């Protein structure tokens, strides 16, 4: 989660978003396109019902940022298969309370299957409790540091007013941010990931060059 956006997080999460019409609950599709410069583009998404709360919103962002660290290490540094993977995770409040985890990256067509399997492996490892305390500490420390830096900006003041009048809570109250961040544990991340993945709808769409 980009903490520069977190100050708007509950407001963003509460705004209506487009709900796609799913052909079925689990989609796995390769799409072949004519390309001048052959490459593959991978899009992976998990969506599930989840109650919206400030803690769940922070857990979603924490999971995404921890996965970014893992994918940098595995997909980029170990495999050299991509410049980097984009990871986004949010808990929405309206029009339906649900969670979404979205992963995307471009890569060499020859490496698609291996890199996709690594993405699913790393998500599964967190679900099974393989959560690195160092990654968690680094992520949460960054949240607290960035939050402090943002509090002097006009955008923060605007989101403070927005959340107070539209969502009914005070962003400056430590219980609505700092206390939540300081309370997040490895077990919280595992439990959140398990809940998100259980009976989730998902799609894995890979764009590939025509042969």
Name a few traits of the molecule.
alpha+beta, globular, five-stranded mixed β-sheet, 211 residues
How would you explain this protein's 3D organization?
The chain is an alpha+beta fold and 211 residues long. It has helices at residues 3-6, 9-14, 54-78, 112-127, 133-150, 154-167, 178-183, 186-197, and strands at residues 26-33, 40-49, 86-92, 98-107, 201-209. Helix 3 crosses helix 4, helix 3 packs across helix 5 and helix 3 (54-78) crosses helix 8 (186-197). The radius of gyration is 18 Å and the shape is globular. Mean pLDDT is 90; it is low at 4-16.
In short:
The protein is an alpha+beta fold and 211 residues long. The chain contains 8 helices and 5 strands; from the N terminus they run ααββαββαααααβ.
Topology at a glance:
Layout: H1 3-6, H2 9-14, E1 26-33, E2 40-49, H3 54-78, E3 86-92, E4 98-107, H4 112-127, H5 133-150, H6 154-167, H7 178-183, H8 186-197, E5 201-209
Parallel strand pairs: 1-5
Antiparallel strand pairs: 2-4, 2-5, 3-4
Helix pairs in contact: 3-4, 3-5, 3-8
User: What profile does the largest beta sheet have?
Assistant: 5 strands, mixed
Helix segment tally? 8
Provide the residue-averaged pLDDT: 90
Q: Which strand order spans the largest sheet, edge to edge or round the barrel? A: 1-5-2-4-3
Low-confidence stretches: 4-16
Cα separation of the termini: 37 Å
Percentage of residues assigned to helices: 40-55%
* H/E element order: HHEEHEEHHHHHE
What percent strand? Answer: 15-25%
Rg, nearest Å: 18 Å
Globular, elongated, flat, extended or rod-shaped: what is the shape? globular
What's the total number of strands? 5
Class by alpha and beta content: alpha+beta
């Amino acid at each position: 989660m980009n903490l520069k956006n977190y100050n708007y997080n509950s407001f963003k999460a509460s705004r209506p978003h487009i709900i796609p019409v799913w052909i079925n609950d689990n989609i796995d599709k390769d799409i072949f396109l004519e390309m001048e410069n052959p490459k593959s583009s991978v899009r992976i998404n998990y969506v599930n019902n989840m109650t919206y709360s400030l803690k769940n919103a922070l857990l979603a962002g924490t999971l995404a940022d921890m996965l970014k660290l893992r994918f940098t290490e595995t997909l980029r540094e170990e495999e050299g298969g991509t410049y980097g993977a984009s990871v986004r995770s949010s808990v929405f409040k309206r029009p339906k309370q649900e969670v979404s985890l979205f992963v995307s990256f471009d890569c060499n067509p020859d490496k698609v299957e291996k890199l996709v399997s690594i993405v699913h492996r790393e998500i599964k490892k967190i679900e099974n409790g393989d959560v690195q305390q160092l990654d968690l500490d680094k992520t949460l420390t960054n949240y607290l540091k960035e939050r402090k830096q943002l509090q002097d900006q006009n955008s923060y003041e605007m989101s403070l007013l927005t959340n107070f009048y539209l969502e009914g809570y005070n962003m400056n109250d430590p219980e609505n941010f700092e206390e939540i961040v300081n309370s997040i544990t490895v077990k919280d991340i595992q439990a959140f990931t398990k809940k998100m993945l259980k009976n989730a709808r998902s799609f894995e769409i890979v764009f590939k060059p025509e042969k």
